[in-house]
Amino acid sequence: MRIALIGFMGCGKTTIGKLLAERLNYKFIDTDSEIEKKTGLTIPEIFKKHGEKFFREKEREVLIDILKEDNIVIATGGGLPAYKDNMEVLNENALTIYLDTDFETLWNRISKDKNRPLVKKGKESIQELYNLRKPFYKLSKIIVAQKENESPEKLAETILEKIKKTQRKI
């Protein structure tokens, strides 16, 4: 089985992904980390030197490669589902799980992070981006609403329960 975590930057895909992979004894893969390995550049460097379009193309290449593996938990980049037909590809090849988090919570988490190049555009611009991407996220097979102050461990347990219910229906 392949599990792909979907959601806006700062929703906890990497943290939750590592917990799920550990509990399922799966391999954890972060698409951003894979892009950095493939290009030899950090995400901010890629954006600065080559721009967002180049980044999105590399992200798609990495996604296609990752989906050849099995027994994996994937933390996708926040923009990945909204680019080309990536969300369709994910839904065809993985159990997609949207970590639904309200914008204010996300903004509080990401606004001070220097490693997020898009944050430099400001809150209104990021809110717009959030609103544009949300319809793609909602195409996920499972949607998990994060509760305020819910621990990553508790959220991971909730997701595991939903995965088990989904698997029983198949």
From TrEMBL:
The UniProt note on the cofactor reads as follows: Binds 1 Mg(2+) ion per subunit.
Instruction: Give the chief site where it resides.
Output: cytoplasm
Give the record's GO biological process terms.
amino acid biosynthetic process; aromatic amino acid family biosynthetic process; chorismate biosynthetic process
**Entry annotated with the keyword ATP-binding:** yes
Asked if the record carries the keyword S-adenosyl-L-methionine, the reply is: no
The UniProt entry, under Pfam families, shows:
SKI
Catalytic activity, reaction form:
shikimate + ATP = 3-phosphoshikimate + ADP + H(+)
For binding ATP, which residues are annotated in this chain's numbering?
Answer: 10-15, 116
Q: Write out the annotated subcellular location.
A: Cytoplasm
Q: Name one GO molecular function term.
A: ATP binding
Q: Write out the residues that bind substrate.
A: 32, 56, 78, 133
Q: SUPFAM superfamilies from the entry?
A: P-loop containing nucleoside triphosphate hydrolases
Q: Which InterPro entries match?
A: P-loop_NTPase (IPR027417), Shikimate/glucono_kinase (IPR031322), Shikimate_kinase/TSH1 (IPR000623)
Supply the alphabetized keyword list.
Amino-acid biosynthesis, Aromatic amino acid biosynthesis, ATP-binding, Cytoplasm, Kinase, Magnesium, Metal-binding, Nucleotide-binding, Transferase
The EC code for this enzyme is: 2.7.1.71
**Pathway the protein takes part in:** Metabolic intermediate biosynthesis; chorismate biosynthesis; chorismate from D-erythrose 4-phosphate and phosphoenolpyruvate: step 5/7
Q: Which GO cellular component terms are attached?
A: cytosol
Which residues are listed for Mg(2+) binding in this entry? 14
Q: Which HAMAP family match?
A: Shikimate_kinase
Q: How does it assemble?
A: Monomer.
**PANTHER family given for it?**
SHIKIMATE KINASE (PTHR21087), SHIKIMATE KINASE 1, CHLOROPLASTIC (PTHR21087:SF16)
Name the family the entry cites: Belongs to the shikimate kinase family.
What is the name listed in the Swiss-Prot or TrEMBL entry for this protein? Shikimate kinase
The gene is aroK
